[in-house]
User: What shape does this take?
Amino acid sequence: MSTGGPDLFVICKSCGSEVSPYITECPYCGNRLRKRAPKIDRDGRVAERRRRRPPTPALPRLKRGEMPGIRAESRPYATLALLVAGLVGCLLWRTGLVKFADIAVVGKPGAHWWRIVTASFTYANTGFAFVTLGTIALYGWLLERRHGPVPVLALYALGGIGGVAVAAAIYAFPIVQGANGAALALLVAWALPDLLAVRGGEEIEGDLLGTAVIAAVVALMPLAVTDASWVADGVGVVAGLVVGLPLARVALR
Assistant: This one.
């Protein structure tokens, strides 16, 4: 056999006879050597079978506003709606359209139970509104990107509206406004996956120090604003833990 030339023979595995490499069946025993006769190139050599290239993965057609390889993020509609509602609540009584006592909790709500809802969107202090709404905007947006609008709305209802309701039930003559409870609920729920990861010895990308500073500022607002409730703070933290733990397990999978 010459180097680079065609094989002079092959061995039949059935009868052991030497046969031509260009046939499909052994002439001595009839054993099938190959499915089809090999292709011969110009030099008389058996041409190697070409391997098929794997199919190129096809990406779906891009939507408007998307870049190749990057999917456009959905807009945080729930978070935006909560912010707009908070701004509207501030403007309603500041412009004199409604009285503060008509939308905040001043005394036991009684038949005016709906004030428990509107009170979480009312701010008599600009600094209180800035800190609370800013926290809701930041962590509501982060949570909505991660889990969608339902957890954001649930956390606001439990921490914000629920915090006002519990405060109104506990105090003899409650005066409650704002959604500091909702802000803490959203913040705690967002930070839980990172806290659990740190506890497990993993490295994280989030800024827990900055989150802790913001949490401290929100939690201490009752020192600066008498209408901000410590009870609402506590309810917000509990709501963040209760809702945030299942969400954290989903995020860590």
Observations:
- The CA atoms of residues 191 and 208 lie 7 Å apart.
- Confidence is low (pLDDT under 50) at residues 1-6, 55-59, 64-72.
- The first strand starts at residue 10 and ends at 11.
- The chain has two domains: 1-44, 77-251.
